[in-house]
Write a structure and sequence with these properties.
Radius of gyration: 19 Å
Number of helices: 11
Strand order of the largest sheet: 4-5-2-6
Number of strands: 8
Structural class: alpha/beta
Length: 323
C-alpha cells in the first residue's frame, strides 16, 4: 500500500507502495502512469492525519471516505496536460464513492505510460518477483497479503508498480478478489491500480496521427486510445500479457498519460519556482527551457523526459553558485 503526501498522477499510487515529487507534470513518451496513483494515495494519507489506513496494524485507523473536490484542486495545481486521465480518474473515484454500498466489484484501473521518480512501495514489479522458479510462492504470498489487508481495512488502494516487470501469470491469482468472489472477504470498496509502460509507443503514435489530422490535444478523447491500450497491455511482455484481468474485462479503465509538450514544461518550471518561493524572470525561464530536449523527429513536439528533470534544471539556475 502506498501513501505519499501528494500524487506525482496520477490519486495516482497508494497501497502496496507510494510516490511523491516536487513537480507533478512529469509525463513523457515512456513514462506517466504513476502520477494519478500518487494522488489518491497522498489523499488518503492526508485524510488519515498522516497515518496509513491500516496497511499494517501498528498504523492508525481505516478511512471510510475521501474528498473528491480536494483531490480535484490538487490535480489542477500540480498535474499538467492530462485532461483525459484527470477526467477518468476523478469520474471513476466519484462514482466508486457514490456507489460504495452497491459496488459489485473493486474499482480496477490500468495507468499506461508510467513515470518512475520516487518510490516507497511494498509490491514492486522489478524487485519483488525476481526468481522465475519462485512463481508459485509469489502467487501465494501476493494473494495472502492482499486478502489480509482487505480483512483489516476494506477501503484499501492497491498500487502495482512497474507491472511490466511482473512475471506473466502471477496477477491472475487475484481474479477471485478482483471479481469479489472470495466469500471470506468483501473487496468491493478497495481500489486496484496497475502501473505499466505498456502502450507508451502506441500512445505517441496515435497522438501524432490525430495531431497530423488537425485534432487538438484538448479534443482527444479516451475513445481514441482505449482499444490500443487494451491491446498493448494484453500483447506486450509483462504482468498483464495474456492476462485474465484483461480477457475477463476485469479492468474498468485503461488510463492514457499523454506526452508533455512545451507549454506543459513551462508550467512545470513555473510551478517549481512557485514551490521554492522564488521569482522567475523571462530570461531564466527561456534558459531552463533550452535545457529540455524535444522529439521525436521531425515534429519535436514532446519533451523527451517530460518534467522529470525540471527540478534539477531549476536548482542549477536558482543557485548558480552551487554549479
Amino acid at each position: 500500500m502506498l501513501y505519499s503526501k501528494y500524487f506525482s498522477f496520477y490519486i495516482l499510487s497508494c497501497l502496496f507502495f507510494f510516490k511523491s515529487t516536487a513537480v507533478y507534470g512529469l509525463i513523457d513518451p515512456v513514462t506517466g502512469t504513476f502520477v494519478v496513483g500518487a494522488f489518491v494515495t497522498g489523499y488518503f494519507y492526508n485524510k488519515s492525519n498522516f497515518t496509513m489506513p491500516n496497511i499494517f496494524p501498528i498504523f492508525g485507523r481505516c478511512p471510510k471516505t475521501y474528498d473528491i473536490k480536494e483531490l480535484e484542486r490538487a490535480i489542477e495545481k500540480r498535474f499538467f496536460g492530462q485532461h483525459i486521465a484527470t477526467k477518468i480518474v476523478l469520474s471513476a473515484l466519484a462514482g466508486n464513492l457514490h456507489r460504495s454500498k452497491s459496488n459489485k466489484k473493486p474499482l480496477v484501473m490500468c495507468f499506461q505510460e508510467a513515470v518512475r521518480k520516487l518510490r516507497f512501495h511494498v509490491i514492486h514489479g522489478r524487485s519483488d518477483f525476481i526468481y522465475q522458479s519462485q512463481i508459485n510462492v509469489y502467487k501465494e504470498k501476493l494473494y495472502y497479503d492482499v486478502k489480509s489487508k482487505i480483512k483489516s481495512c476494506d477501503t484499501n488502494v492497491f498500487v502495482f508498480d512497474e507491472t511490466h516487470y511482473i512475471p506473466i501469470g502471477i496477477l491472475d491469482i487475484l481474479i477471485p478478489i478482483l471479481e469479489n468472489n472470495d466469500v471470506s472477504i468483501d473487496s468491493r470498496n478497495s481500489i486496484f491500480i496497475f502501473l505499466t509502460n505498456a502502450g507508451g509507443k502506441a500512445i505517441v503514435t496515435k497522438y501524432l496521427d490525430l495531431w497530423s489530422k488537425g485534432i487538438s490535444r484538448e479534443s482527444m478523447k479516451i475513445q481514441d486510445f482505449d482499444i490500443i491500450l487494451q491491446k498493448s497491455a494484453f500483447n506486450e511482455k509483462g504482468g498483464l500479457m495474456k492476462s485474465g484481468l484483461i480477457d475477463s474485462h476485469i479492468v474498468d479503465y485503461y488510463v492514457p498519460f499523454l506526452p508533455l509538450e512545451r507549454d506543459h514544461v513551462v508550467k512545470c518550471i513555473e510551478s517549481e519556482f512557485k514551490n521554492l518561493k522564488k521569482y522567475l524572470d523571462p530570461s531564466t525561464k527561456s534558459e531552463i527551457l533550452e535545457m529540455v530536449s524535444f522529439g521525436p523527429e521531425p515534429e519535436n513536439l514532446f519533451a523527451t523526459s517530460g518534467c522529470k528533470r525540471i527540478n534539477q534544471f531549476v536548482a542549477s539556475q536558482s543557485n548558480p553558485d552551487l554549479v
